[in-house]
What does this fold into?
Amino acid sequence: MGQLLCCVQVDQSTVAIKERFGKFEAILEPGCHCIPWFIGSRIAGNLSLRLQQLDVRCETKTKDNVFVNVVASIQYRALAGNASDAFYKLSNTRGQIQAYVFDVIRASVPKLTLDNAFEQKNDIAKIVEDELEKAMSAYGYEIVQTLITDIEPDEHVKRAMNEINAAARLRLATTEKAEAEKIIQIKRAEGEAEAKYLSGLGIARQRQAIVDGLRDSVLGFSINVPGTSAKDVMDMVLVTQYFDTMKEIGASAKSSAVFIPHGPGAVRDVASQIRDGLLQSSQLQ
It folds into this structure.
């Protein structure tokens, strides 16, 4: 019915190409338009002004001879002011854009190593966008944005890269663990040294206290019991301590055995040894 009345409707975000006897005449904006078909006017086609996206997957290789698949997303749209160029000059817009993307990516990526390609994917996208903008502007198209959405190497290459990364992390973890064990051993050695030092101080103080106690006992007994010599008092004290020690060993619940010579002569020998040690200590002081 619209064609019989010479009326056509152009949708929003779309322009129509009007021809007269096969020659371009005008660009029709969205709305209702009168097309007198009986005098040779007609609509040659419609052109969308919406933003469109084209995903291009391109296989290439890097400078270190690793084959990768680079996925680029191209966002483009036709310019309303150049709608005639966009409609007439290109028969396959998406194919033309794809060819330019292939050409730019295969000229840029081989200059980079695989690691650099991952690091500089924004630079690659910028190069592709600039080249497309120069090429497609002559055909009435605007390149809005170009994104490199993925750089995918071969599965064997990815596995090797993961193994290298895992080995590096394992080496670092081993180094840190060894360093921690070193610190633990150093601290343990320092603690043992400090403990031995303090134990030595304790033993020295214990022995000094024993010597002082025996000396005081001998002096006190000699004063309170006339007629006894210091040797008699020392022998009695030593024998008393000897029997106390034997009593403690016998009362112990542990199963360890201690073999020592026993008898009057043995007691005399023990007393002589202790007395000599005390005399030597007194001389050193």
Observations:
- The beta strands are 7-10, 14-20, 23-28, 31-34, 41-48, 52-61, 67-78, 141-153.
